[in-house]
Structures are given as structure tokens and as C-alpha cells.
Amino acid sequence: MYQISARGARAPVEAAWDALAWADPSPAGAVDCKEDGRGVWRLDAFAETQDDADACVAIIAETSPELNARVEEVIERDWVTMSLEGLPPVSAGPFFVAGSHAIARHAPGKIAVLIEAGPAFGTGHHGTTLGCLLALDGVRRRRAIGKVLDLGTGSGVLAIAALKAGASMALGTDIDFDSVPVANENAKKNNVTGFTAMHVTGANHPRIRAAAPYDTVFANILMKPLIGLAPEIARLTAPGGTVILSGLLHHQAGQVRQAFEGHGILFERRIRKDGWSTLVMRQRD
């Protein structure tokens, strides 16, 4: 495994992130960018082979020549074991997300969600997950969370948090086959009922439609899939229901907002965390 890193101004870092994330096929298995200090942004990509790492560097150089990308070989580690040794807990409003090493020590009165680091995205540490949890807190303060659809469920952290906060049921979907058993197992570990995770691409699936309409919809994925899902999400959301969208760099939020507003979904607010934006929107009554 190889890590490719570059630091610089926001515009070239985001441009390089875009190029790597949407290359088809991409030499990078995962790409992330975030603010790394005052006026400084950082790009991180991960590649399986040296050739793929070199291809990532070439894409960065072509897209943003002012960036100086570095390649470092990453020693394979047992990330789950490491998480048990020291993955810090995460607080987001009333929610406390942590592994078993810290969950017993959570602050009194918090809604504790047990999530170990593993192969599925979503330990609560990423800015997109934090934004979604804060948006969920806003929902629970105003009304019943009701029926939940979690598109791109990953570890199941958002659906599980919603159920612990009073949701009546939650259906999670993911295009990553390996995430599905992880999410279902996490639901069991958290002693929540009414959760099912499914391996599904998109939102046009008979089982998703059968449980509609949904009072709260999460879609923590990426800009282009979100725009493509806008009409389906609009049809699946109950009148007055909340739509929480994330996986967006700040400059991408406007395009996604516009796409959903074009399908009658109203903008309510935007949450910014660690270089990422979460949009909170509402279906018309």
C-alpha cells in the first residue's frame, strides 16, 4: 500500500482531489482532502501498487503542477486492533461514537454508539459523518425521526444513531458488498432493532420503494451520485421529511443544493466540518 500526499492552497488541492476521485478507472483506491492549517489544505490518496502511486502523482502534476506530491509506502497494520488501543471517541451533539475501549467511559446523558474501526466507512471521525450526526440532532429536537433511509450506510453509524435517538426503523444501503455484514453486525452490537442493511446500487429498488416514504433520509456519498439520486430521493421522502446530504467539499455544495431544489426539496442549512459540507434540506409539506 502506498500513500500519496500533497499540501498547498485550497484550489489546487481540491482540483487534484476531483481529478483523482473521478478518473475512470482511478489509480487511487481512496482519496481525501481537508484543511490542514490556516490557509493550507492537504490531499491524501492511497494506491495498492507503486505503478498506481506513480499514476496518482502524474495526475496531480498534470492537474495542479504547483503541488509537490510525495509517495510513502505504508506498512500494513491491523487497524481494528489499533482502534481498540487508542481510536479517540467522537462527540457530535448528544451522540458519542467510540470503540469498545472507550464506550464504557462515555459522558453521562450521551447517546452512545459502538463502532469499531474496520473495513466499512464511518467511525464518526470524518467531517462528513460528524456533519450528518449534528444534522440528525437538529431533526430530533424538532420532531420524531420516524422512518430512516441511509444511502451509503457504510458501518451503519448514522442509521444506528438514528434508531438510538428514537427512529421507528432504518434501512441502510451500500454499493460496497463488504459493508453490509459490518453494518448489520454493528446494529446487533448496539442492541438496536428495526435495522436492515442491503447491497444496493442507487435508490430504485423494490424493497426501498416498499418501505417509503421516509421521514429522514441520509445520503453521505459523493457529489455526482448525489445529483443523480436527487429525483429518487425526492420521491422517497415523506412530506415535511428531512434530507441530509454529505460527502461534499465546500465548493460542491451549491451544485447539489441546486439539483435537489430542482426537485422541490427546500434548503434549510449547511454544516461545515473539517473541509466538508453537509446540507440539511426538507421535502415540501
UniProtKB/TrEMBL annotation:
UniProt keyword annotation of Ribosomal protein present: yes
Keyword Methyltransferase: yes
EC number: 2.1.1.-
Subcellular location: Cytoplasm
SUPFAM superfamilies: S-adenosyl-L-methionine-dependent methyltransferases (SSF53335)
Domain of life: Bacteria
Keywords: Cytoplasm, Methyltransferase, Ribonucleoprotein, Ribosomal protein, S-adenosyl-L-methionine, Transferase
Pfam families: PrmA
Function of the molecule: Methylates ribosomal protein L11.
Family classification: Belongs to the methyltransferase superfamily. PrmA family.
Protein name: Ribosomal protein L11 methyltransferase
Organism: Hyphomonas adhaerens MHS-3
